[in-house]
Amino acid sequence: MCGECGYRTSRKFALTRHMRTHAGEKPYKCGECGYRTVQKSHLSRHMRTHAGEKPYKCDQCDYSAAQKVHLDLHVAAKHTGEKPYMCEKCGYRTVRMSDLSKHMEIHIGE
User: Fold this and answer.
1) How much is the pTM?
2) pLDDT tens-digit profile, the chain (110 residues)
3) Exposed, middle or buried by CB within 10 Å (0-12, 13-18, 19+), for 41?
4) What is d(CA 101, CA 96) in angstroms, rounded to the nearest whole number?
5) Alpha helices in 1-110 (DSSP H)
6) Which class for 51: exposed (0-12), middle (13-18), buried (19 or more C-beta within 10 A)?
């Protein structure tokens, strides 16, 4: 168990990897742009952007993405109309949590 945040896992390697987030340690580095990450799998995923690989294909149009999460966002925004994040103050809805966070800035001082 992590003493800083309570994260629990039964695997020692997972706890060791998790502890890097608190230490700010990012041992895996992209040789092309300097991107750094805690997990090797994240670096492998990042490298697709440099290689132009886009293995995740939309089955409803010709869109493709390097990461599955981007395909999922595309499908929600373009094909299903799903917008799960909603502003409690004005009803604004969006596909991305980061867009809602940015939107909330307009309500500061109301």
Assistant:
1) 0.58
2) 889 898 999 999 889 888 888 888 899 999 999 999 988 999 998 998 899 999 999 999 999 998 898 999 899 888 998 888 999 999 999 988 889 999 999 998 77
3) exposed
4) 9
5) 12-23, 40-51, 68-74, 97-104
6) exposed
